[in-house]
UniProtKB/TrEMBL annotation:
Domain of life: Eukaryota
Domain F-box/LRR-repeat protein 15/At3g58940/PEG3-like LRR residue range list: 2-159, 185-235
Source species: Urochloa decumbens
A Pfam family reported for this protein in Swiss-Prot or TrEMBL: LRR_At5g56370
Segments crossing the lipid bilayer: 161-184, 205-224
Keywords: Membrane, Transmembrane, Transmembrane helix
Descriptive protein name: F-box/LRR-repeat protein 15/At3g58940/PEG3-like LRR domain-containing protein
Gene3D superfamilies noted in UniProt: Ribonuclease Inhibitor
Amino acid sequence: MPPSALRFCPTLRAAHLGCCLFPNVVAGQVHFPNLQHLTLRLVTVSEHSLHAMLAGCPVLNSLVLKYSYGFRRLRINSQSLNCLAVHYSDHPDKAEEIMLQELILENTPCLERLIHGGPYGDCGMRVSVISAPKLMLLGRLTDGIGRLELGGTVFQVSLAFFYFALISFVVIICPFLCHCDIIILDSYIIQGLKLIRMATTMRSLKVLALFNNALCLDVIINFMRCFPCLEKLYIRTYASGMENAWADKPVDRLEWLDLHLKRIVLGFYLGKKPHVDVASFFLLNAGMLESMKLVVETHQVNNKKWIEKQRKHLQLENRASRSAQIEFVTFHCFSCPKDINELSEPFEHTL
C-alpha cells in the first residue's frame, strides 16, 4: 500500500483496507485522530505495525479483521472500542502465513461485542478477557479454542484419548515398522472446553454463541454458570453428540434458568438422544423461556410424523415456561448486505 493512500488520515472516519501488505514504516507513522471504524480484509500486517496502528486510533469504535495475517498476538487496550470482530480461517492462501494465536482484551471499558465470524480458524488459540465490564455479546466460542480466560475463570480444551489398531498393511507408509503385524496407535477427539477454575462471573453478558461440535451439556451448563444473566443462547453442532450426565439429574435452581434465559437456537438438530437431551433440558428447566428454534435438515421440516415424534421426545407438555414457542426450521444460506458486526442479532443469521 503506497504512503499516498494515507493522505486523508486527519479527517478519515471509516477505513476499509483490503488485499494489501501494510508496510512497517508506514504503520509506525500513522495517526488516525478521528477514525471510528476500521476493517482489514486480506491484509498482511506485522504484530508491531498492527499495534502501532491501533495505538494511533484514539476514538476507534469498531475493529474488523477479516482473514488478515502476519501477527501471532493481538493485545487490545482501547478506551473507545465497542465492537471487535475476527473472521479467521485455518487455511490461509499461503502456508507460511503467520496466524493469530493469542487474543488479549487487556483494558476495554466500552467493549460490548466480541465476535468470531470465520469458519473455524481458532485451533489452539488462547483468548484472554482481562477487563471488559460492558461485554454483552460473545461468540462463536468453538471447541478449537485451546484456552479461554474470563477474568479469573478458566476454560481449557478437553481431549478424550482412544486407541486403535492398524494391521500390518500400514508398513507401506511406515517402512521402518516393517516387522510389525499390528500397531497400536493413540489419537483423540475434542470434547469441548472444560471448566478448570470458576472465579469470575460476567453479569453483563446477554448473548452467547457456541460451536460445540460434541454437543456436551456439561460444557454448555458451565458456560451458563459464568454468565448468570444470559438471555439468548445459540448452539451449533455437526455431530450426533455425546451422552450427557446432566440430562437425567435434578438441577439446582440457577439464576439464568429461573429469571433470564428467553431464547435458544440449536442447529443442527438431528433428533438423536444427545440432541433431545440438550433441548429438553432447557425446555424443562428454563422458567422464562419465550422461544426455541431448532434448525433441522430440509427434508425433515415437512415431515409431520417426524416433527410430532420430536415434540413427544422433548416433553413439551412438561415445559417450565408454558408460553415457550417451539419452532422447527431449515437452514437457508443467503447473502447478507451487511457484515456480521453490523447486524443487531448476528447469530440469528450465521448459526
